[in-house]
Specification:
7-stranded mixed β-sheet, 11 helices, Rossmann fold, alpha/beta, 2 domains, 22 strands, Metallo-beta-lactamase, Chain A, globular
Length: about 400
């Protein structure tokens, strides 16, 4: 079996791996920079298998629709892929876009929906295994009869309120594993939740406004559940409303569907025409986007930035250069073309849905115990990927490499 790394190698974004001659692809994401970056090369695969519905793993799938490949994924991941494609077209303001509404419609025609089960794609036997990242997320095993490959996608080895942790790694000859949080340990989840809820409650009690930027997929729902459990009143705005309704239609992908229902009923939805009446009501505002790169959060940030009683509670990783990162590190950020100085308090709470350093190392150690003899580290910066590969070779005694984008390797 040959693999070619089309993106997401020594970088985070545009994740994609081509198997053999590219007739099978694992993920096909994009990196939403300017200009947008896609997996390298042009491909006409017979089939694509998707690990989960985040933009960096599925955002470019509509580009492949001219060859009408079978698109294999869980039902939740399929629906998220379509939702993200619709949203991408909606927010595109100028320039040539490499797919259109017809391509997005073809996604429905090529959908092959699976549970966590075995199926055939482009002549390979494929298995999905729960990855613990977001609802519907899966690690992927590809078997050509001689070699078994485990592609982890994004994996989380701890339970969250929303989903159960990843399954134990299945047997495989080779593993392609993420490296996102190598060198970083997440604090205990209960500690994070309690600190976040306490911070929000204190600011609301003092008469300030709290804005909580969240990712629509996964983070919106978890934050609503945390606020409900700590009896903190809140509004919810942005794309996360639509995603929450989607998740509730797939209760088998949730750790506790009833808990999400209670949290959803606890929150008050905000429609665009109501935003000017939301602040000053003693409720936190949970809204997209998580890194403040778009969505309603810009409106709320402009309203709260100038007063030190107010608070901005970031809830996830902030890419360098994004408004969220700038607000946290420099206390200023460019929002809708204006540079806003933040007198409001800015906090970062670690609600990551990725495995941390010890989780990643333990996961790979168990994969090696299950038979893996080759490991390829991806989905991290150059330092993280190289460091992880070095640790695997030193500590576990198997071949490990940090491939670069475009590189082809032989596995098995």
């Amino acid at each position: 079996m040959k693999l070619r790394f089309l993106g997401g190698a020594r970088e985070i974004g545009r994740s994609s791996v081509a198997v053999d001659d590219g007739r099978l692809l694992l993920d096909y994401g994009l990196e939403a920079e300017t200009p947008t970056r896609y997996p390298v090369g042009r491909h006409r695969p017979e089939a694509v298998v998707l690990s989960h519905g985040h933009l960096d793993h599925v955002g470019a799938v509509p580009r492949l629709m001219d060859s009408l490949p079978d698109v294999h994924a869980s039902a939740t991941t399929h629906e998220l892929t379509r939702l993200l494609a619709d949203d991408t077209l909606k927010i595109k303001k100028c320039g040539r876009w490499p797919f259109n509404h017809e391509d997005v419609l073809r996604l429905s025609q090529t959908a092959c929906v699976h549970g966590m089960e075995e199926f055939t794609a482009a002549g390979y036997t494929v298995e999905l295994h729960r990855a613990g990242h977001i609802p519907g997320s899966a690690s992927i095993v590809v078997d050509d009869g001689d070699t078994r490959l485990l592609y982890t996608g994004d994996v989380n080895t701890r339970d969250t309120r929303l989903v159960e942790r990843a399954e134990e790694p299945p047997s495989a000859d080779a593993v392609v594993v993420e490296s996102t949080y190598l060198g970083h340990e997440h604090p205990p989840r209960k500690q994070v939740e309690e600190g976040f809820a306490r911070s929000v409650r204190e600011t609301l009690y003092e008469g300030g406004d709290v804005v909580v930027p969240v990712f629509a997929i996964g983070r919106t729902q978890e934050i609503l559940m945390v606020l409900y459990e700590h009896d903190v009143p809140c509004y919810v705005d942005g794309m996360g409303r639509r995603v929450t309704r989607l998740f509730r239609q797939h209760p088998d992908d949730l750790r506790n569907p009833d808990a999400l229902k209670r949290a959803w009923n606890h929150a008050q939805e905000v429609n665009p025409g109501e935003r000017d009446r939301v602040l000053g009501q003693g409720k936190a505002v949970v809204t997209t986007s998580g890194m403040m790169t778009g969505g309603p959060v810009g409106y709320y940030a402009r309203r709260i930035h100038s007063h030190p009683t107010n608070k901005l509670c970031l809830t996830g990783y902030q890419v360098a250069g994004t408004p969220g990162r700038e607000a946290y590190e420099r206390k200023r950020a460019e929002i809708d073309g204006d540079m806003l100085p933040f007198s409001a308090q800015v906090e970062l709470h670690d609600f990551s849905a990725h495995a941390d350093d010890s989780g990643l190392k333990q996961y790979v150690e168990r994969a090696v115990e299950a038979g893996a003899e080759q490991v390829y580290t991806v989905h991290g910066d150059e330092h993280e990927c190289h460091e992880f590969a070095g640790w695997i070779e030193r500590e576990l005694g198997v071949e490990a490499r940090a491939p670069e984008v475009g590189e082809e390797v032989e596995v098995g």
